[in-house]
Amino acid sequence: MPQPYEIYAVRYARHSARRASENFIGGDEHDGPMPLDYFVWALKGPERTFVIDSGFDAAAAQARGREFMRCPGEGLRMIGIDPAQVRDVIVTHMHYDHIGNPSLFPQASYHLQDAEMQYCTGRCMCHSVVSGVYDIETVTAMVRKVYQRRVQFYDGAAELTSGVSIHRLGGHTRGLQVVRVFTRRGWMVLASDASHLYANMQQSRPFPVVDSVADMLEGYQTMRRLADAPDNIIPGHDPLVMTQYESPRPELSGAVVRLDADPIRR
């Protein structure tokens, strides 16, 4: 068996004004407040550390009406990860809230699906309803990293190292990928935006920002096969993550939780 990884979720922003009707295709008959949290994630293993996504910055938060709590780099430093020393960043997809802060990891290689780069630099971006969740400056920054030989591309599933693999599901975007990680709890899946909320996948009610509804629904099934238990799938934006898992230290409460620990039973 692989050596187990520790998994941390670092919360860096919030969208408190979000309503339930905005989080499901077809709305929600019990409409009311249903906020979204914004995270980056870190995998700490015995020999290697991975960061998953890079969040956005204060300027992007102000432009899009989000509440900015901290730079993702600050959150990573709280758990002993120096962004300047990070060697591997897994990009789940290239929406503005997942590839911001392009200079945060100066030594990193970025792991990305072919289909995602093709999608966000191709004809689909001629449609504002699709391109609005991408940011031209951060997309361009990733293209520059390609020319700097700092992007590793994949076409589907791949093992990055023993205990860490990526799996392209699509659905939310053409090249969205999830991360499968071996932990003390067995195999876990970091869903990112394959499921924004627990309710999206548990109730098979897709999030409305979507490239393919069919692929999104199939993605829920794939994640269940990849994870050792339903609790081992972690959604990408659900505030419940911060209440179902404990912080590694009391002073990190509200900022960081450890996901490979047993969830809190309420």
Walk me through what this model shows.
The chain contains eight helices and 13 strands. The protein has helices at residues 58-64, 72-78, 114-120, 128-131, 136-147, 198-202, 213-226, 240-244, and strands spanning 6-15, 36-44, 49-52, 67-68, 88-90, 109-113, 151-154, 158-161, 164-168, 177-183, 186-192, 233-235, 256-258. Strands 1, 2, 3, 4, 5, 6, 7 and 13 form an eight-stranded mixed β-sheet that branches. Strands 8-9-10-11-12 form a five-stranded mixed β-sheet, with helices on one face. A hairpin with a 2-residue loop joins strand 8 and strand 9.
Radius of gyration: 17 Å
Number of helices: 8
Order of helices and strands: EEEHEHEEHHHEEEEEHHEHE
- Secondary structure tally: strands: 13
Low-pLDDT windows of residues: none
Mean pLDDT: 97
Q: What structural category arises from helix and sheet content? A: alpha/beta
Tell me briefly what this model is:
Helices cover 23% and strands 25% of the residues. By secondary structure, it is an alpha/beta fold. The strands form 2 sheets. Strands 1, 2, 3, 4, 5, 6, 7 and 13 form an 8-stranded mixed β-sheet that branches. A 5-stranded mixed β-sheet has the order 8-9-10-11-12, covered by helices on one side.
SSE map:
Blueprint: E1 6-15, E2 36-44, E3 49-52, H1 58-64, E4 67-68, H2 72-78, E5 88-90, E6 109-113, H3 114-120, H4 128-131, H5 136-147, E7 151-154, E8 158-161, E9 164-168, E10 177-183, E11 186-192, H6 198-202, H7 213-226, E12 233-235, H8 240-244, E13 256-258
Parallel strand pairs: 3-5, 5-6, 6-7, 11-12
Antiparallel strand pairs: 1-2, 1-4, 1-13, 2-3, 8-9, 9-10, 10-11
